[in-house]
């Protein structure tokens, strides 16, 4: 089959999909807007666009901020360059990077080569991203006083890394969770080492060389050991998940989970041992599978917020580290309560202490990604005192987790009053983390908090036994 016929078949699918989506959006617009509203919206949009050029003095008032951003973009170029591949390693947990849906897969079962279809998909992705980056860069150059050369260099770097990481992301999507997670952590540690030792340029060249070599090594094995069922399942959801339509119709698009992290684990193939802890662990896995999107959003959001805010302002970073403990433990408690209001657990008898005990393990695993940026920030800011600072974070996590789970436990029995004081004290103790910004010696109080936490755990074990 020649190139023209392959392209025509591919373009037919893409054009048909675009038409269907356009019909859906037209119906949504017809239901959401009328002619008068649309006219006024266009007038307001035109005024906002014109005001950018009319109110030039408004932008001039932020001249110093723009100069600071320009200075940071210049000074930290090599750090940003070495961090960029992290984005695609993180995306590989949920996105294969090449948009092969069930339609393209069915096309490959006809006399069309999958290699050509993947090539067309990748080329389309690269051209679209280049146009997006060009439009955004042009807007930044027109509106801000940042030097155009810097914007153009960053445009080229972002697009080049996008192009080079397409094949690695595709292959990473196929491997198990643990290797991907190890690679993600190693890249974070390597960038941390480059920042501490001031050799970001060398680290960038090493990372770039590895990325280029991986493209040559993986290109020949690009179509070996591919889980096409999982690839098409994820891409079908990415293509047809339209947030605007979902919000307008109040109907949430859900992914059909035929292939997922929990079902494909090796332990699922072993004989199941019918013990209380094994049964409760399996029920927790089922609950986490149904809420995996929220779990990833909360943990990923906390990691990203801590990293970004600490980069710009150390004090804000400390505040967010303290709040992250409160947010994460409150989220764990809400998952705990929700477990008893959904699924088979609503109609069967259960042991709440066993549920609480098995939940603790998963809560600790979920908090580890949040601890990674906190550890890096602590080592950079406090050197040897970072050990006591990390002990402080862990001890406050323990206290908050026990307090939130006690409240969740009592909420199931409709008794919350007696635990409100403990919750207030636990929340107030987060101020110690913020105080460490002025003096890291305050973190030494973590020893006392840890002892208190262990005493509470021993008391609870003796009480339940």
Automatic annotation (TrEMBL):
Annotated transmembrane regions: 126-144, 150-170, 177-196, 202-219, 291-312, 318-337, 362-381, 387-403, 415-435, 441-459
Keyword annotations: Membrane, Transmembrane, Transmembrane helix
Superkingdom: Bacteria
Coiled-coil zones: none
Keyword Transmembrane attributed: yes
Keyword Secreted appears in the UniProt entry: no
Entry protein name: ABC transporter permease
């Amino acid at each position: 089959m020649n190139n023209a016929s392959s392209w025509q078949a591919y373009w037919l699918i893409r054009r048909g999909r675009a038409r269907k989506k356009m019909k859906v959006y037209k119906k949504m617009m017809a239901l959401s807007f009328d002619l008068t509203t649309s006219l006024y919206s266009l007038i307001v949009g035109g005024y906002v666009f014109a005001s950018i050029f009319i109110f030039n003095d408004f932008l001039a008032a932020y001249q110093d901020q723009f100069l600071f951003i320009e200075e940071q973009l210049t000074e930290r170029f090599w750090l940003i360059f070495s961090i960029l591949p992290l984005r695609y390693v993180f995306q590989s947990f949920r996105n294969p990077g090449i948009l092969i849906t069930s339609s393209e897969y069915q096309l490959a079962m006809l006399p069309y080569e999958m290699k050509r279809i993947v090539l067309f998909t990748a080329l389309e992705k690269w051209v679209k991203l280049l146009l997006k980056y060009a439009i955004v860069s042009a807007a930044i150059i027109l509106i801000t006083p940042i030097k155009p050369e810097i914007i153009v260099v960053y445009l080229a770097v972002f697009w080049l890394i996008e192009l080079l990481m397409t094949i690695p992301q595709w292959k990473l999507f196929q491997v198990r969770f643990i290797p991907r997670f190890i690679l993600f952590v190693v890249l974070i540690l390597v960038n941390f080492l480059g920042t501490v030792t001031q050799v970001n340029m060398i680290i960038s060249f090493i990372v770039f060389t590895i990325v280029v070599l991986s493209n040559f090594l993986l290109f020949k094995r690009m179509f070996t050991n591919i889980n096409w069922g999982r690839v098409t399942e994820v891409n079908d959801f990415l293509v047809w998940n339209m947030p605007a339509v979902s919000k307008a119709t109040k109907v949430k698009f859900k992914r059909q989970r035929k292939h997922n992290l929990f079902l494909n684990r090796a332990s699922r193939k072993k004989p199941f041992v019918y013990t209380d802890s094994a049964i409760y662990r399996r029920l927790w896995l089922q609950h986490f599978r149904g809420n995996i999107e929220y779990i990833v959003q909360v943990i990923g959001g906390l990691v990203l917020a801590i990293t970004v805010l600490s980069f710009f302002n150390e004090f804000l970073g400390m505040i967010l580290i303290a709040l992250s403990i409160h947010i994460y433990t409150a989220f764990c408690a809400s998952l705990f309560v929700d477990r008893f209001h959904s699924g088979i657990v609503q109609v069967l008898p259960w042991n709440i202490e066993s549920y609480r005990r098995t939940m603790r393990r998963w809560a600790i695993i979920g908090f580890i990604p949040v601890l990674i940026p906190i550890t890096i920030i602590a080592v950079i800011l406090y050197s040897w005192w970072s050990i006591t600072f990390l002990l402080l974070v862990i001890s406050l996590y323990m206290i908050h987790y026990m307090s939130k789970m006690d409240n969740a436990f009592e909420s199931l029995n409709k008794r919350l009053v007696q635990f409100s004081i403990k919750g207030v004290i636990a929340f107030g103790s987060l101020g110690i983390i913020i105080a460490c910004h002025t003096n890291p010696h305050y973190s030494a109080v973590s020893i006392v908090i840890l002892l208190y936490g262990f005493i509470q755990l021993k008391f609870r074990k003796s009480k339940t036994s």
